[in-house]
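Problem statement: downstream parser choked on a complex file, so we are re-checking the raw output for the coenzyme a persulfide run. The parser issue turned out to be on our end (a line-ending mismatch), but while we're here, posting the original submission so the record is complete.
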Amino acid sequence: MSHLVLPFFNNGHRQLAEELGVWAEANAPKDEPEDANAVSKALVKQLGEAGWLDLCVPAPAGRFEKLDVRSLCIARETLAYHSSLADFAFAMQGLGSGPISLFGTDEQRAAVLPEVGRGQKIAAFALSEGKAGSDVAALATTATLEGDYYILNGSKKWISNAGIADFYVVFARTGEEEGHRGLSALIVEADAPGLTVAGQIDTISPHPLGSLEFTDCRVPSSVLIGESGHGFKIAMATLDVFRSTVGAAALGMARRAFDETVRHVKQRKAFGGTLADLQITQAKLAEMATLIDASALLVYRAAWTKDSGAERITKEAAMAKAYATESAQEVIDMAVQLFGGRGVASGHIVERLYRDIRPLRIYEGATEIQQVIIARQVLKEVEMDEKSPATNH
Ligand code: COS
């Protein structure tokens, strides 16, 4: 991880990368598990006991006063290098409790975050629905205030940790206004009456994923996070923080594919030498190395910008997520190609990475959504420049 010498980082970050790397090498699953739910649950416990999940929540439950996005990124990059499921287990503790960390009251934080940070409570972020994935403002699950309770009705789909989570941060329509201004975020315990897990979803990269059904699900009004009607912005601000970490996970996977490939091409005999002697191979290695370094710069630029106090890193995080995930897919594809037949054999490390990287280009906002976000921010910046007196001579 040569980028750790860059001025984005301090010695604490470098030490984290080294220590977590040693831990992951020894503890992360080496093979794809038969039962992803059970292994994920065990990984949360293991990560918690080893003290790594305190990066996912702010102090006093966590290690840092505010979430340190560079540490989250280093952790995801390191874990994803070894196991996409270990990375997933870590990441979901952060994303699932993120709205509480960023917008919760002291009471809400105290009730949830210490256990999330110790791996004793599993968190989940319940935003997507069957008919509202990219278009968050179209979500239809309702939360109707009746006295001191919200009554939830509707369903959620593609929810990571559905079935193993202890609580869900649920985004629902509270109806203050139409569209994005009528949503709120609520903490719903997994055993709330009226909440059922409506099925697990199998994917090309197995991890806990499923649907939720709310039927007159009654929760106390004290579970509201932030202000009523501000759910859309809470979701977006949480995603701003965690999207750069998705880029970091992609970076870890790309790096693993690259390292495996370099080892392979240096020893694989072909045409009287090794694959590495061929200029066509060298061109691929050059492309892979450059995509990886460019991704690292974008990911850690976004993380550093947030850690340096920026209120929003919407554009930087979207660039990091889109570029690093798309580049990692390209890098891993080149790795598969250079491994030849072995690269597509079930169970080979690059075959697994080829499947593991794919969902990252979709979840937490597909690449096309990141492009929309980047373009809107760029246009907004140009508009502001045009209005600013300094450029209006
Ligand atoms: N932080 C704070 N506020 C934000 C924000 C952010 N990152 N992004 C948008 N907002 C605000 C806007 O400023 C706007 O505020 P006003 O009401 O004051 O005007 C409001 O939110 C609506 O924003 P926008 O007009 O951009 O909303 P759209 O409905 O056009 O949707 C996209 C925007 C497409 C970007 C959003 O729906 C999205 O991110 N979709 C992908 C969802 C996703 O990641 N799903 C995966 C689920 S987790 S696995």
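For whoever reads this later: The beta strands are 123-126, 142-146, 149-160, 167-173, 183-189, 195-200, 209-220, 224-225, 269-270, 273-274.
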